From TrEMBL:
Name of this chain's protein: NIPSNAP protein
Superkingdom to which the source organism belongs: Bacteria
Key words of the record: Signal
Signal peptide annotation: 1-19
Length: 248
């Protein structure tokens, strides 16, 4: 069943609450929810203005979730806006306040200026990662994002490669944090997303990213080649003015 874009946004941004609604949700869970939009041609500024207004609505409602906003800088999806919530439990999305009001505000301020591109949910894989800056509310100026789509039945081989890569990265101070997410719903699976925090282009001189340069064992190289059906890479530029980071 297809839902109108305003309903999707309402579900995306509705604030979860608990007995202590004002308590911080920072790094309290492993859910990562992404929602993406194509601003309509010629309406990019209006989209940004409307999205800021909608974030104000959530701030006034004391939404305890963090919401990051990025624009895709390069690749096939350049120009797409992606917002995401990280670090809360999946159960947080079962409890919302004023969903009707949320949907109404989104319908006024956001969805008239954009088309829904996708929505997807991931699970943070802490044991495969070297850092979790988004879960700790420390977004970088940009993020290098790899999407690895696997052949069916190769998950164990691929994760063995990731464990080897993590071991190679540990103890290196010249490498930015690597955070791995496993897609649960919202497109092709099995699929994994790697996010590498970047603060400037000079960091690519020190470390270009990707798995190939981290694997010395020929077996791991064979496993990587045999498991991965496709890999895509892109850069997401962080927009602090289109993000909501709750006050502690």
């Amino acid at each position: 069943m297809r839902f109108p874009a305003c309903v999707l946004l309402a579900l995306a941004l509705s604030a979860p609450v608990s007995a202590q609604a004002s308590a911080s949700t920072r790094d309290s869970g492993d859910a990562a929810h992404l929602f993406a939009y194509w601003p309509k041609k010629g309406m990019e500024d209006r989209f940004d203005q409307g999205y800021r207004a909608h974030l104000r609505w959530h701030r006034e409602k004391r939404d305890p979730l963090v919401w990051y906003g990025w624009y895709v800088y390069d690749g096939e999806r350049a120009g797409m806006f992606i917002d995401g919530s990280f670090g809360a439990p999946f159960a947080a999305f079962d409890r919302r306040v004023d969903p009707a009001g949320d949907g109404a505000d989104a319908g006024r301020n956001v969805t008239p200026n954009a088309d829904t591109a996708f929505r997807a949910s991931y699970r943070l894989r802490r044991e495969l990662s070297t850092g979790v800056p988004l879960e700790q509310w420390r977004p970088s100026k940009s993020v290098q994002v790899f999407h690895y789509t696997l052949h069916p039945g190769t998950t164990q081989r691929f994760e063995a490669v990731l464990r080897a890569a993590r071991a190679a990265l540990q103890g290196r101070s010249d490498v930015p944090p690597h955070t791995w997410y496993e897609k649960l719903v919202g497109g092709a699976v099995p699929q994994y997303m790697l996010m590498i925090a970047r603060d400037d282009w000079s960091s690519y001189d020190r470390y270009p990213g990707g798995l190939d340069g981290l694997l010395d064992d020929p077996t791991h190289r064979i496993d990587l080649a045999g498991a991965v059906a496709e890999v895509r890479a892109e850069t997401w530029n962080y927009r602090a003015d289109l993000s909501l980071v709750p006050e502690d």
